[in-house]
Request: fold
Amino acid sequence: MMQALNIAFWISVLTMTFRMATPLLLGTVGEAFAERSGILNLGIEGMMLMGASVGFLMGYITGNLWLGVLMAGISGMVLGVLMAFLTVTLGAQQHVSGLGITIMSSGLSFYLYRLNVPTPGGIPITVKSFEPIKVPLLADLPILGPIFFNQYELVYISIIIAIVSFYLLYKTDWGLKIRAVGENPRAADTVGINVFRVRYICLTYAGGLAGIAGSWLSLAQSGMFLPGMTTGRGWICIALVVFGFWNPLRILGGAMLFGGIDAFQLSLQAVGFKIPYQLFLMMPHVFTIIALILVSRRAIYPRALLKPYRRE
Amino acid sequence: MINEELAVKMVGITKRFPGVIANNNINFEVKRGEIHSLLGENGAGKTTLMNILYGLYAMDKGEIYIYGEKVDIGSPKDAIKLGIGMIHQHFTLVPPFTVTENIILGYEGNNLILKTDEAEKRIMELAEKYGFEVDPRKKVMYLSVGEQQRVEILKALYRGAKILILDEPTSVLTPPETKQLFNILRRMADEGKSVIFISHKLDEVMEISDRITVLRKGKVVSTVSKDETSKRELAKMMVGREVIFLLSRPEVEVGEIVLDVQGLFVLDDRGLTAVKNVYLNVRRGEILGIAGVAGNGQKELAEAIVGVRKALKGKIFVEGKNVTNRPPYELMSMGIGYITEDRVGKGLIIDLTVKENLISKVYSAMTRKLFFLDKDLAERYSKWLIKEFDIVAPSPETPAKTLSGGNLQKLLLARELAIEPTLLVASQPTRGLDVGATEYIRERLLEQKKRGTAILLISEDLEEILGLSDRVAVMYEGEIMGVLPVKDANIEDIGLMMAGAKRLNR
Ligand SMILES: Nc1ncnc2c1ncn2[C@@H]1O[C@H](COP(=O)(O)OP(=O)(O)OP(=O)(O)O)[C@@H](O)[C@H]1O
Ligand SMILES: [Mg+2]
Reply:
């Protein structure tokens, strides 16, 4: 059994790490923007599910997977706008609004799926999912090749999104405005920043990324849609954003760590470790709890998080 | 008619809030190059009027002209474009941001990719021009209040403000900081900028203003030139009656020691020693005044006495009982009242109603049958206190946050005095209050003294300390520089002790 944990095993773990990290990374970077602007987006789990469903349906109906990804993003954005309408315009409780969106979306995503897809004998329909691409020359490098240069396009895209998001948040005028709105909306308002608009934009962005994260699950990871297939990834994003101190680069690191653990447990299962698989499945969640206990005491939340803004 | 000499002209401004007319047909003019003070009781409508000028509130009626041109100010953005800057009563800075980030936040001329170096250079130039020091790279949360205020002023100047509104800028400043602020304001006025200055401190208003407009209950009483008025006249215009600036101290027989502090050491939030080896005592019917510039350990001393901050070393006795580091509810039930200087943040729960705040110390006495609140009793209790303490609130169900500063303070006072304390710790009880409310609060404190309460009065206002206390202690860098009977105290000596330049032998 032990000889199964050789170099090939570890290469496969690392290769898979990127793949497991991708939805977490996308979702969490989006969540960071929402929370930086002062809104806790508990709708993220539902937005991911919606993305998974809509992405799959588009891919299944048109045969164009990228169109699926695009529509998944748009469906997430629509839910983001809905979240913004509830919490920003109406000033509703963020917890309640977010959970409401998640509950609604988990039903709606399956409903849409069943409307469009016949499931003979309960067996899910599949589409031909995304394939990893080989980066010319580099993909043939030993060890590094398969880990870094033989990945899905969406993996690369998500890493680029994280890096660009970091620059956006910390080096640009927009980023300064976003962070100010989440820290002290009144201060932002008094210098002429439209607090409402900033929050709408951030939630739209968060929704879009969550939707794309969902489409990864149905279009790259599995090639099918299952109800509840996000299995709590959205909640892990909520934890990961704290772990990453709301900073996209730290989140990139955190997503890799969490993705790594997931990849590790999956690989162990694959080589046939004789431990109940439920224990393996538990690992990412247990790790989430441990990580949060360790860092959350030092985490400095955006000060205006959860507080609706009103002028008078 | 275009009048270039008038920087601001507000005509017939009216603004209603639920239950109050905050501004009632107000006419207000400010000239170019003038420092114009806006004076009025708490709740007179000064902040509201300025929020309208700055585009934060929409007025119900009225017209605004800036440099002779009729304008429509729908948001702060419009105001900034017109060259109006405002420094709010409560600062509007982002604490984890640097000085530079705070200043350039939302500035129209920013590039998408921020050029912090260039901004820093401009900030330094501006600071030099008006004669103040800042470190543009420091985070605002590490700045003193005075420094934060300078950042606010720079923020306005950076945007090219020609009309600067300052809402009670001096209520948080030490005397030297105030002086520095006045130098800056004078320089700005000499340059042709206009300054609108709101304050309750009549001495300051008389010192800095060219003209003064007095508001009362949402209406303009009068606009006068500084040279043609006096402190007394201004106070009368504000309150509508004569004001006694110094109340006569009632003669009270002092009794046994109520509070006895022995060798107390206390840490501040940063973990530095804020109170060092303090010994003091207060007797029944006595007021011990603690003078000193804010930030010299007074707050920590008060908090340790009432049990919300840990005493590191030393002992605190109340009526002979050792209460060091006992939980606050225990001290409360012994009859210790506390008027904190942070009435909005710590003293009151401003999102709750007036009634809920009033009963928050006595709710256990108001529960009947298991744990249900006796609604009638609570209602009667709060109505009685509202009347007794003359709190201006539409009803007991009004959220506390809509009350004016003076009424919030009365609310806190009412709650604390209603339990008839044996020891009262009063920290900056009249800060930010108008002359009428100040007079009222001081009267109530003296009344408590007559009742036999031992009062520890902490204040930065020397006049207040000398006017109310029986003995004066001066605090500097956490130490008591000396305690002396008020009849032996003179302002010069106390000033020297406040600056740490003089110490009395214990
Ligand atoms: N946002 C608001 N909602 C409801 N009422 C308000 C609001 N802001 C002010 N008011 C009311 O309007 C009146 C004027 O308040 P304002 O804050 O302008 O007084 P002020 O002169 O600035 O007093 P202070 O000296 O205490 O700062 C008060 O009665 C106050 O309770
Ligand atoms: Mg005010």
